[in-house]
């Protein structure tokens, strides 16, 4: 293993600071390498996947005597030397034909691995697809494709969430009973690893809506499928195939404001079966899932964020006394002449007769004039003021 290097100049110091842990990690680099024996189909598959991953990719052309599941020390050495946290190793043997091993490391230590066996009967390269104009299609360098995982097996064992450079995507099982099966864990790990492999640079300031012109669809149908060209293991033959398809989005005229979207396959086309897998160690996974305190927002009381990212707050108002509310006095709520005392309580609301005191005094003093009718003339005795001339 490489020894600890003490920087002697500014150039080596900047290189070490670049590899040091950060709150926001750099985009992951993937290293492509082959074993001592690799078929031509496997080499073409590595070339196409390298083109999809570029520029965050490095490819080795020499043969390497590496056996990931027996001794991952060599892959850890390559990961540390090239500062690559993702590795794709291709090898072919009589027992495991056209085998791709996708590896992920944390702190340059092997975290998890998954084997995928390529079906030679359905493999198609990028250059073998032609568009409507007859020209060959290619995957643009540095494009950030959209991902779609379709199929029940991906969600039976848990949700594979893409991880950071120093972290593993959490696998939170939806169905605990299904998560205990090997098939459920394999498909959950496949979703996490493939998401981490294809997402590229996930910096929020580098998202271009016009650049979202490609989509990668990975489908896993229910039940096992038979097929030729697969591995000889009975366990892998019983699992459903993973169908990987890459499409380009084409916009065409629709006669409306929004265009009509059509999908055009540009390759590569891969059908794979899942093989052996190495699950992450418990202690190493805890370290990989740890987040720095500076990135975590402080929790506030009664404030939380829902699944859509919206902030939701909870308000607790005090108890209101309806009897102490000050209502506006209206003429329609006053008691009319001749109403009883019971109606006064209903009309006034509080039973106070202060507003009706003058009316009651007039009614009480009108007893002696009962039955007398006539015209009353009111005369103003005050003299009028003479207008002054200015």
Automatic annotation (TrEMBL):
Pfam families: Brix. Keywords: Nucleus. Residues 28-283 form the Brix domain. It is found in: Nucleus, Nucleolus. This is Ribosome production factor 2 homolog. It comes from the Eukaryota. Residues 14-23, 293-322 have a biased composition (Basic and acidic residues). PANTHER family: BRIX DOMAIN CONTAINING PROTEIN, RIBOSOME PRODUCTION FACTOR 2 HOMOLOG. The keyword Ligase does not apply. Residues 1-23, 278-390 are annotated as: Disordered. Its main location: nucleus. The keyword Nucleus applies. InterPro entries: Brix, Rpf2. It comes from Sporothrix epigloea. Belongs to the RPF2 family.
């Amino acid at each position: 293993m490489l020894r600890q290097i003490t920087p002697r100049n500014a150039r080596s110091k900047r290189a070490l600071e670049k590899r040091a842990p950060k709150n926001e990690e750099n985009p992951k680099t993937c290293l492509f390498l082959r074993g001592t024996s690799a078929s031509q189909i496997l080499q073409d598959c590595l070339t196409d996947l390298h083109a999809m991953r570029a520029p965050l990719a490095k490819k080795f052309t020499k043969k390497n005597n590496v056996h990931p599941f027996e001794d991952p020390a060599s892959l850890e050495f390559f990961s540390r030397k090239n500062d690559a946290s993702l590795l794709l190793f291709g090898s072919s043997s009589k027992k495991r034909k056209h085998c791709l091993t996708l590896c992920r490391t944390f702190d340059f230590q092997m975290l998890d691995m998954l084997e995928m066996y390529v079906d030679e009967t359905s493999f198609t390269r990028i250059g073998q697809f032609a568009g409507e104009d007859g020209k060959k299609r290619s995957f643009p360098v540095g494009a950030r494709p959209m991902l779609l995982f379709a199929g029940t097996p991906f969600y039976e064992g848990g949700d594979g969430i893409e991880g950071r450079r120093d972290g593993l995507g959490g696998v939170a099982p939806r169905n605990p009973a299904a998560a205990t099966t090997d098939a459920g864990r394999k498909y959950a790990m496949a979703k996490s690893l493939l998401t981490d492999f294809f997402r590229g640079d996930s910096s929020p300031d580098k998202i271009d809506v016009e650049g979202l012109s490609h989509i990668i669809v990975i489908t896993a149908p229910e039940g096992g499928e038979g097929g030729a060209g697969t591995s000889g293991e009975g366990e892998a033959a019983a699992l459903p195939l993973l169908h990987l398809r890459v499409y380009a989005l084409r916009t065409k005229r629709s006669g409306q404001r929004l265009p009509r979207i059509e999908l055009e396959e540009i390759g590569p086309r891969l059908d794979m079966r899942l093989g052996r897998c190495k699950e992450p160690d418990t202690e190493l996974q805890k370290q990989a899932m740890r987040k720095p305190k500076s990135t975590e927002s402080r929790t506030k009381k009664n404030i939380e964020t829902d699944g859509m990212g919206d902030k939701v707050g909870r308000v607790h108002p005090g108890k209101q006394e309806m009897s102490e509310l000050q209502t506006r006095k209206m003429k329609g709520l006053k008691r009319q002449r001749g109403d009883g005392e019971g109606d006064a309580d209903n009309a006034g609301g509080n039973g106070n007769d202060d507003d009706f005191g003058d009316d009651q005094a007039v009614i009480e003093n009108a007893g002696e004039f009962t039955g007398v009718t006539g015209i009353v003339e009111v005369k103003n005795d005050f003299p009028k003021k003479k207008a002054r001339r200015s």
